[in-house]
Design brief:
The complex is a heterodimer of chains A (284) and B (158). Chain A has 284 residues and is of the alpha+beta class. Chain A is built from 12 helices and 14 strands. In chain A, the strands form 4 sheets. Chain A has a 5-stranded antiparallel β-sheet, sandwiched between helices. The longest helix of chain A has 19 residues. Chain B has 2 domains: 76 residues, Beta-grasp domain (Ubiquitin-like (UB roll)), CATH 3.10.20.30; 64 residues, [2Fe-2S]-binding domain (DNA polymerase, domain 1), CATH 1.10.150. Chain B contains 5 helices and 5 strands; from the N terminus they run E-E-H-E-E-E-H-H-H-H. In chain B, strand 1 and strand 2 form a beta hairpin. In chain B, helix 2 packs across helix 5. The interface between A and B is medium-sized, with 30 and 32 residues.
Chain lengths: 284, 158
């Protein structure tokens, strides 16, 4: 099936895109890489009157160093982010999650900001972005504002981006020298996460000095597992100690129940995957 | 209608298209390049894989207007001067197909995989082809074909 008819706009600057958004409002849909939007349009689950393609705005692509953070342009394709040297040096957890995201063709075309703005709770970028304390830069007619990851994700497929705003870049604090791992549980290749856990760990001589843990698909939004992080600090990177901390993984979660598993099953998975992710991140 | 121009298999093309036209639809219905096939409606199967500006994409998941100005290579543009591409040759030698429907996409993704990773391990090949489904489940010989194309001995006689 093909999408319903729409008018197509391809602005070449963020300002031009914002003007188009202001003019068409609710009737418009923003097109980033299109790897989630185009299937939705083809299945006629949505039929916007106007599609605003951000693909011609060069300023939204690329990764740059900005002191204590790296800054990722919202329209940078997953494959570019995943292989970027700055990302691999300072925010390796993102590269690990991208490796497990969808498939090669979709990683070539799908964009980092597009996936985050889509805010699918089973998407693989929310948990690492939340775990690393990322900040989201959102531009509107009145300038830009910066939103913390915890406030960015509001609900299922809902973010803090206003109707008349565009996500332009994501600032990720540097976690240089941290070990990291993304542990994704699926039944078959190329599936959405049933549950996944993103973990980054800073170790000092076999002891966990700091930890960051994010959960995928354990609620309507990605969840930062603060209780696990606190329990890990000062612990040795051993199976036993990490398993004890990982038992806190279900605190504050509200996992969905669907054909892939009921909520109890997901709670079980969260503990197991957290243990595995943290141990792998710690190099144990 | 929106005016688009692009290079497809080395030839410049220009057309007016409806913005909702999918790249695969444009390739097949307007340019007659039916070597690229449609296998699903959900961008899972990878049968429609082509190269756009040097990387593999699922052409059912790209609008033709998004490819305006791009360089596109389909399965029909791989062979040069009547000589099959080494990956096409390897698929033939290893019988890397059963019904053949997934083959154009499998070959295009295999070429992209080998460009990014010229000496992939078996598991890297299987991962690299994760977005291409063979409903005959003929994966084994497909993996062998990619190994042969990569110059690894596990190809034909393994």
């Amino acid at each position: 099936m093909i999408p319903a008819q729409f008018d197509y706009l391809a602005p070449t600057s963020v300002e031009e895109a914002l003007a188009a958004l202001a003019e068409h409002g609710d009737d418009a849909k923003i097109l980033a890489g299109g790897q989630s939007l185009l299937p939705v349009l083809r299945l006629r689950l949505n039929a916007p009157e106007v599609v605003i393609d951000l693909g011609r705005i060069d300023s939204l692509r690329g990764v740059r160093d900005d002191g204590d953070a790296i800054v990722i342009g919202a329209m940078t394709p997953h494959s570019v982010v995943g292989s970027d040297p700055l990302v691999n040096e300072h925010a390796e957890l993102l590269a690990k999650a991208i490796h497990d995201l969808a498939d090669a063709q979709i990683r070539h075309r799908g964009t980092f900001g597009g996936a985050l703005a889509h805010a699918d709770p089973a998407g693989d970028l929310g948990a690492p972005a939340v775990a690393l304390g990322s900040q989201f830069v959102i531009q509107g007619a009145n300038g830009t504002r910066t939103v913390d990851a915890q406030e960015f994700f509001v609900d299922l497929f809902e973010t803090a981006i206003g109707e008349d705003e565009i996500l332009t870049e994501i600032r990720v604090p540097k976690h240089t020298g941290w070990g990291s791992h993304y542990e994704k549980f699926v039944r078959v290749a190329h599936q959405w996460s049933i549950v996944a856990v993103a973990a980054a760990v800073r170790s000092e001589g076999g002891t966990i000095a700091e930890a960051r843990v994010g959960l995928t698909n354990m609620g309507n939004t990605p969840i930062r597992a603060h209780a696990v992080e606190r329990a890990l600090v000062g612990q040795p990177a051993t199976e036993e100690a990490v398993a004890a901390a990982a038992a806190h993984a279900t605190e504050g979660t509200n996992p969905p129940a669907d054909l892939n598993g009921d909520a109890d099953y997901r709670r079980h998975l969260a503990g197991v995957l957290t243990r595995r992710a943290v141990l792998a991140a710690a190099g144990a | 209608m929106t005016k688009i121009t692009m290079m497809v298999d080395g030839a410049k093309v220009a057309d007016d298209v409806e913005p909702r036209t999918l790249l695969v639809q444009y390739l097949r219905e307007q340019l007659g390049k039916t070597g690229t096939v449609v296998g699903c409606d959900t961008s899972n199967c990878g049968a429609c894989t082509v190269h756009m500006n040097g990387t593999s994409v699922k052409s059912c998941n790209v609008l033709a207007v998004q490819a305006d100005g791009a360089e596109v290579t389909t399965i029909e543009g791989l062979a040069k001067d009547g000589e099959l591409h080494p990956v096409q040759e390897a698929f033939r030698d290893c019988h890397g197909l059963q019904c053949g429907y997934c083959t154009p996409g499998m070959i295009m993704q295999s070429v992209a995989l080998l460009q990014e990773n010229p000496k992939p391990s078996e598991s890297e090949i299987r991962e690299g082809l994760e977005g291409n489904l063979c409903r005959c489940t003929g994966y084994h010989n497909i993996v062998k074909a990619v190994q042969q194309a990569a110059g690894q001995s596990e190809g034909v006689n393994a």
